Amino acid sequence: MKSLSGYVMKQRKKKNNGPLRGKAVLVTRPGSQSGSMKKMLEKMGARVFNLPVIQIVEPEDWGPFDEALKQIKRYHWMILTSVNGVRGVLQRLHALGRDLHYLDHVRIAAIGEATAFALTESGRRPDLVPGQFTSEGLLEAFREKDWVRGRNFLLPRADIAPGYLAEELERHGGCVTQVTAYRTVFPKPTRTSLNKLETLLKERKIDYITLTSASTVSGFFDLLPGRFKKKVPSRFVTIGPVTSEALRRYGHEPYREAKTHTVNGLIKALTASPTA
Length: 276
Fold this sequence. Notes:
Layout: H1 4-15, E1 24-27, H2 35-43, E2 47-50, E3 55-57, H3 63-70, E4 77-80, H4 83-95, E5 107-110, H5 113-122, H6 135-144, E6 152-158, H7 164-171, E7 175-185, H8 191-202, E8 208-211, H9 214-223, E9 235-238, H10 241-248, E10 256-257, H11 263-271
Parallel strand pairs: 1-2, 1-8, 4-5, 4-6, 6-7, 8-9, 9-10
Antiparallel strand pairs: 3-7
Helix pairs in contact: 4-5, 9-10
C-alpha cells in the first residue's frame, strides 16, 4: 500500500505543474465572487492571495427600481451589464411576487458571457449579446439594427456606473431610465491584511495583481501604502479596456489586458506566452 505522505506529495506536485507554477497572484474581486477565480488559478499552480477591495451591497432605496419594474411594459429594452445586475432584477421580481415571465414583454440585452450565462441560468435567454463585451460593442449592435431611435431603455446598474452608455443611447434618439440595482462600496480592510499586503509587496512576493473593474482599481489604490503608489513591484493584469484606462489614471500600465472581457479571458491573458 502506498503511503499517505507519498500520495500527498504526488498530488501537490501534480497541482503545481500548471502554467502559473511558482507564481503568486493577488485577487481583488469582492469576496463573494472570488471563489471560482481562486480555484482556477490554484489549479494552474498559482499561490493566491485574496484582498477584496470592493463589496457589492443593496441600494439604499429599492423604490425607483421597483417602480420601473411595475411599468415594464413601457420599455422596449432592458440592458444588463453585469451578473450583479441580473441578481438585482431577480431579487426585485421575487420581492414583487413576480417571476421571469413578467419580463416577456421586454427584450433583454446582456453585456458579456457571464451576464448572459447568469440570465440564461435563471430561465431567460438574452435577446442580444454583443460580440464585443463592452458598452461600445452594444451600442454598435443597436445602431446596426436601428434599434435606438424612439425606443425606451431600462438600465439596472451600479450606483457608480459611468454615464457613457445612457448618454450615447440618448444622443442617438433613445429614452433611458437608469435605476440602481446594487451599490459598490469600499470596505476598510483589517490592519492585519494591510500589513500583509505591504510585506508581500516589499518582499516582491506578488507576481501579478488582477483587476476586474474600474472600481477594483480605485479600491486597490485607495488602500495601497503610499510608498508603492507610484511604483508597484508587481504586474497588473486587467479584464478589459475600461479597467486598463482606470489603471492608467493612477500612472500605471497593464502588463496584460484580457482580449475577452471575462474572468476566463483574464486568466487566459495571465497565462499567455510572452509573445502572445
